[in-house]
Design a protein that fits this description.
single chain; 328 residues; alpha/beta; Rossmann fold; four-stranded parallel beta sheet; 13 helices
Length: 328
């Protein structure tokens, strides 16, 4: 799996240590760039000391070769093995500020001049770590597009299809840091890789449930989180695609009613993928669900399933599995 991931990222021919010629990071200056972030136009001074929250967001910076513009990152240490990834050089070079959620103190201690995070990927109302709070400290922010609040409720997220969110952020970051060609190459190669998987998709698409966590109620993906398009581009149908949110909780009764053919487990946290699988296979209300009856359970890492440069590789691997399911 790691070799496949490395090959997929090398295909992008960017500054990821894969031997490709790359665009140099431009010199630091005081120029400004105007971007659209979560539907609002924002003018930024080009940052020199970026602080990021969580693995997918951090790796977007690494994939663009922007380690030199980073002051540090925060993420829990339950997000998988980071010793054998295409961006190991970035992790070795950039300071790991916290193994918890990012705080204002982390940012100030690192002398950060820009925070790249997302709602529920660092930004939260209940702890006061918000774009507005950082603005009062004179620190601008960029919100991960997958996590943009959409106004349907106070907390519901998602304003565009998940892969479009990925391409939007790569393009915006490329413009902000003067690495547009590098960003465009990444986007083009990701689109090609995904198109190749789509071309091999089965005619009859298996129904798929994304299972993140939860026993009383499952935490899953609606139409606006990355799993929606990871599943659909791989050749499946997300059984919760009508849920007008990104990551959210549903009821087990809705899972039973929709009867998925495959369950994809999100692997992270204190509960292992094997423990999650054991629960699903032994949970009585699911005993007649097709995925459970046939033990069709597939595991992807957390970073595969949030907006990140690993999404195309996840689509390829899930696509291979779904074709085996469709052939039976």
């Amino acid at each position: 799996m790691r070799k496949l991931l490395a090959a997929a990222v090398c295909l992008a021919a960017t500054a990821t240590g894969c031997g490709a010629s790359v665009e140099k990071t431009p010199s630091k200056d005081a120029s400004t760039v105007t971007l659209t972030n979560c539907g609002k136009k924002v003018t930024y001074k080009v940052p020199e000391r970026v602080v990021t929250n969580d693995v997918g967001i951090t790796e977007l910076m690494f994939a663009l070769g922007l380690e030199d513009r980073m002051a540090g990152f925060a993420m829990p240490d339950d997000k998988g093995d980071l010793s054998d990834v295409p961006w190991k050089g970035g992790y070795d070079k950039v300071k790991w500020l916290s193994k918890d959620q990012l705080t204002k103190e982390n940012v100030l201690d690192a002398k950060g001049d820009f925070v790249f995070a997302g709602w529920n990927y660092g930004f939260r109302d209940d702890n006061g770590f918000t774009p507005d709070a950082l603005k009062k400290l004179g620190i601008p922010t960029y919100i991960l597009t997958e996590s943009c609040r959409n106004g349907r409720t106070k907390t519901s997220r998602g304003i565009m299809p998940p892969l479009e969110a990925l391409y939007t952020d790569l393009t915006n970051l490329g413009k902000l840091f003067g690495v547009e060609k590098r960003a465009a190459t990444l986007v083009a190669d990701f689109k090609k890789q995904i198109a190749d998987v789509r071309a091999e998709a089965p005619a009859e698409k298996p129904k798929v449930l994304l299972y993140d966590s939860g026993q009383d109620q499952p935490f899953t993906s609606g139409r606006y989180a990355a799993p929606e398009q990871i599943i659909s581009e791989a050749g499946g149908v997300n059984v919760m695609r009508d849920v007008d949110d990104s990551w959210t909780t549903v009821g087990w009764e809705s899972v039973v009613e929709r009867n998925p053919d495959v369950i994809v487990i999100c692997d992270y946290g204190d509960v292992s993928a094997e423990q999650k699988k054991k629960f699903l296979l032994s949970y009585a209300p699911l005993r007649n669900v097709s995925a459970v009856k046939h033990k069709r359970i597939f595991v992807l890492d957390y970073v595969d399933l949030v907006e990140s440069p690993r999404n195309p590789s996840a689509i390829a691997r899930l696509g291979t599995y779904l074709r085996t399911v469709a052939d039976k």
